[in-house]
TrEMBL record:
This is Probable S-adenosylmethionine-dependent methyltransferase At5g37990. It comes from Olea europaea subsp. europaea. Pfam families: Methyltransf_7. GO terms for biological process: methylation. Keywords: Methyltransferase, Transferase. The lineage of its organism: Eukaryota, Viridiplantae, Streptophyta, Embryophyta, Tracheophyta. Belongs to the methyltransferase superfamily. Type-7 methyltransferase family.
Length: 192
């Protein structure tokens, strides 16, 4: 965040001698360890830091309240496991596996459809939160269209360290408790 703030300050100094104060909001689920995050921030930082709890798949800020939104590697976290993957009667049923092994396109398609739905929600929410002329930047890995990996990790919006403590990462209903789109293919991003 410090790099972003410094870059913005440099641009503003060219046009104006009055540098605004910066507020940076860190957003995540309540189960995230914000104490570790805030302990890692430099005391010499040039911004005020605050946390905002809740899912980034929907709105977390008032309308037209931000000039810049930045998201790094969060878009792989899905809002939910696709229902088809959990349904034993569905062609996309994944038998409660945490990994996609490339054996059923229906599983991949279910996760891709959920990713597209979540990305759409994410972009619409940020569009409402940004001021007119505001900027959004996000980092998200993509696979080249030519590559369909044989192994995809899928997980849900839970704290990773909570998952590690689960026995075999299973819910009582036999499904994995997590859902992550291991990385959309470039074509998925173009479609959305």
């Amino acid at each position: 965040m410090q790099t972003i703030v410094e870059s913005i300050k440099e641009k503003i100094e060219i046009v104006s001698h009055q540098i605004p104060e910066f507020r940076v909001f860190f957003n995540d689920w309540t189960s995230n360890d914000f104490n570790t995050l805030f302990a890692s921030l430099s005391l010499e930082r040039e911004y005020y830091a605050a946390r905002v709890l809740g899912s980034f798949h929907g709105r977390v800020f008032p309308k037209a309240s931000h000039h810049l939104t930045y998201s790094s590697c969060s878009l792989s976290w899905l809002s939910e496991v696709p229902k088809e993957v959990l349904d034993p009667l569905s062609l996309a049923w994944n038998k409660g596996k945490i990994l996609y092994y490339g054996d059923k396109n229906e599983v991949l398609n279910a996760y891709s459809a959920q990713f597209a739905k979540d990305l759409d929600s994410f972009l619409k929410a940020r569009a409402e939160e940004l001021v007119f002329g505001g900027l959004m930047a996000f980092i998200h890995g993509c696979e080249p269209i030519e590559i369909r990996t044989s192994l995809k990790l899928v997980y849900h919006h839970s704290n990773f360290w909570d998952l590690v403590s689960w026995t075999w990462l299973r819910r009582k209903d036999g499904s994995d408790g997590i859902a992550v789109h291991g990385g959309p293919m470039a074509v998925d991003m173009k479609v959305v």
